[in-house]
Amino acid sequence: MHPTAVNLYPLLGVLVIVAGFVLRFNPMLIVTVAAIVTGFAAHFPVERILEAIGSGFVKTRVIPLIILLPLPVIGLLERHGLRERAQIWISGIRAATPGRLLIAYLFVREITAGLGLTGLGGHPQMVRPLIAPMAEGAAARFGKLGDTERYRIRAFAAASDNVGLFFGEDIFVAFGAIVLMVTFLKEAGITVEPLHVAVWGIPVAVAAFVVHSLRLRRLDRWLERRAQASSETPDSPSHAATPANGEHA
Amino acid sequence: MTILLNYFFWLLGVLLFVVGGIIVCDREHPKRFLAGGFWILYGVVFVVGDRLPAAVVGGLVVAMALVAGFGGVTGGKPKVRTESERFERAKQLGNRLFAPALTIPLVTVIGTLLSSHLVFGGMPLIDPKNVTLVSFGIGCVAALALACWLTRDSVAQSVRESRRLIDALSWAVVLPQLLGMLGLVFADAGVGKAVAHVSTTYIDLDHRFVAVVVYCVGMALFTVIMGNGFAAFPVMTGGIGVPILVGVFHGNPATMAAIGMFSGYCGTLLTPMAANYNIVPAALLELPDKYGVIRAQVPTALIMLVVNIVLLNSLMFL
Questions:
Q1: pLDDT band for position A239 (50/70/90)?
Q2: A42, A74, A189, B88: which has the highest count of C-beta atoms within 10 A?
Q3: Quick one: DSSP state of residue B129?
Q4: Nearest CB to B177 within list A44, A63, A154
C-alpha cells in the first residue's frame, strides 16, 4: 500500500462540517465554507471551486422544487381553515389517538413507498397541512396539552413520514437506490438481481415498522401521563384543539 | 407539446421574484433589502441557472450564504386570520377542503403511472426523463386552480400566503440543495477515497462480526456526515463490503447491499445534514427546536442500526 497515493487533505471539509455544527454556526455558512475548504484542499483554483459550487447547485434544483411548489396551495388552504378542518375531522373518530393515527400513517406511507408511490406523502404537502394537525387534534381526548406535548406530537408526525418513506422505498425494485446498488456492484464484478436486493430489504422494513410503532404507542402513554399530571395543576393553559359546539356529535 | 421540468423551475423562479419583491416593498420588515434580495437571487438560479456560467452561479450561492449566515434572512410579521375565523371557514367549507390538498399526491401518482400512455401526435405529454417530478408540478398547479375555485380566493392571495410560509422556512429551504452541492464537491475532491483509505487502514477486519459492525456503523456514520446514504454506499461498499464481506467471508452481496443501504438510512434519521428530511420539517411545523425532529428519531434509528447489524450477520452468510 502507498499511503501517499491518497490525498487525505479533502477530509478537512468533513472536519469543517463537524466543527461548524458543534459550534452552532449558521448551517448555510458551514456548508459553503466546507465546500470552499474542500476545493482548496484538493488544489482547485478559485474559479474551479466556484464552478463546482455553481454546477452542483444547479444540478440539485429539484430538491427545493418539491418543498416550494406546493406552498401556494397549502398556504391558501390554511387561510381557509385546512388545519382546523383536519382537527375537526379526526376528533370525530372516537378511537383516534396521536399514536394510533401515526401508526396508521406510517403503515400506509411504508406500503405505498414500497410500491413506488413515494409521492403520496411528504412534509410540505401532507405532514404540515394534514397529518400533524390531525395528530394534534386526536390528542384532544387526553384533555389539556401544553406546548411541549404539541411540539413532540408534531416532531413524531414528521419522524413517521421519514421512517415510512426510508424503510419502504428501498423494497421497491425500480427505486433509484436499488439501481445505484446494482450498478455499483456490477462495476465491482458482482452480478445481483435487483429483485433479490429488494427482497432482502423486507425483514428490515418489517422491523422498522414494529420498532417505530412501539415508540408511537409509548408516545400515547406519555401524553396520557402528562395530561393527567397537568389536570392536577389547574392553572396550566389549555391548547387542546376542541372544535366548537358539537360539530361531531 | 411536451411538459418539461424546466417550466416548473421557471414558475418557481417567478414565484420567488414576486415573494422577494413583496418583501422588499414591505416597510415593516426589519431587513427588507437583504431578505428580499436573498429570494430574488434564489429566483435567478431557477429562471436562468442552467444558462449562466457555473462560476457565476457559484458566486451567487456564496453571496446567498453570506446573507443567510449573518442573519439577513429574517421573517416579517405575518398577517394571518385569527383561529376563530379559520374555524368558521373550516366549518363552512367542510371536508371539501381536503380535495385540493389530496390533488397533489393523486395527480403525481396518476401522472407517473399513465405517463407512457399520454402521447399526443407522437409527442409525450410528460417529459419521459422526469415523469414523477413533472406530474408533481402539474399536480401543484391543478391543486391551486381547484383551491382558488373552492375557496373563491385569488392566485394573488395564494402568493401572499406563500410569502408567509417562505418567511417561516427562511434559509432552511436552501440548505438541502446546498448539501446536495457539497456532496458533489466532495466527490469531485476525492473525500470518499480518503475516508475508505482511513477506515480500512486503521481497523482490524479479521473477525467476521467486527467487519459486519464496521460496515453497518460506517454506513450510518458516513451518512451522518454526508447527509445521504447514496454518497456513503459506494465508499463503504467499495472499501469494506466487496473486498472483505464478499471477498474474504463469501457473504451474499444482495443481502449486504440491501441491509447496508438501510444502515445508511439510520444515519439519515440522525443528521442535520439531511436537511430536507430533518431541518425543513422542523421549520415547516414551526418547532422552536430545529433539531426536534431528529430528537424524535434518535431511538428508532439506533434500535434499527442494531437490528441491521444482527440481521446482516445472520442473513448474509446463510
A1: very low
A2: A74
A3: G
A4: A63
Q: What are phi and psi of B76, to 5 degrees?
A: -90, -175
Domain boundaries, chain A: 3-60, 66-232
For chain A, counts of helices (H) and of strands (E):
11, 0
Give whole-number Cα distances, B208 to A200, B221, B302, in Å: 20, 20, 21
Position with higher pLDDT, A243 vs A156: A156
> Is B12's CB within 8 Å of A180's CB?
no
Q: Do B296 and A152 touch (CB under 8 A)?
A: yes
In whole numbers, what is the pLDDT of chain A averaged over residues?
84
Determine the pLDDT at residue B250. Answer: 93
Q: Inspect the interface and report whether the beta carbons of A77 and B151 lie closer than 8 Å.
A: yes
Grid cell digits, residue B253: 452481496
Which residue has 464481506 as its cell numbers?
Answer: B245
Contact criterion met (CB below 8 Å) for B223 and B232 = yes
Tens digit of each residue's pLDDT (9 = 90 or more) over A107-144: 999 998 887 777 778 898 899 999 999 999 999 888 87
Q: The C-alpha cell of B108 is what?
A: 403525481
CB distance A169 to A175 below 8 Å: yes
Asked if the ipTM is above 0.90, the reply is no
- The CA distance from B27 to the nearest CA of chain A, in Å, is 22
Residue A66 contacts B, CB cutoff 8 Å? yes
Residues sharing a CB contact under 8 Å with residue B231, sequence separation 6 or more, in sequence order:
B183, B186, B187, B192, B222, B223
DSSP string, A50-84: HHHHHHHHHHTTHHHHHHHTTHHHHHHHHHTTHHH
| Helical axes B292-315 vs B253-268, angle rounded to 10° | 160
Interface touch A54/B234, C-beta < 8 Å: no
Model confidence, pTM: 0.82
What is the identity of the amino acid at A104? A
Nearest to B89 among A81, A208, A243 (CB): A81
Q: Identify the helix (H) or strand (E) that includes residue A211.
A: helix A194-232
Q: Residue B289 — pLDDT band, cuts 50, 70, 90?
A: very high
pLDDT per position as a tens digit, A198-232: 889 999 999 999 999 999 999 999 999 988 887 77
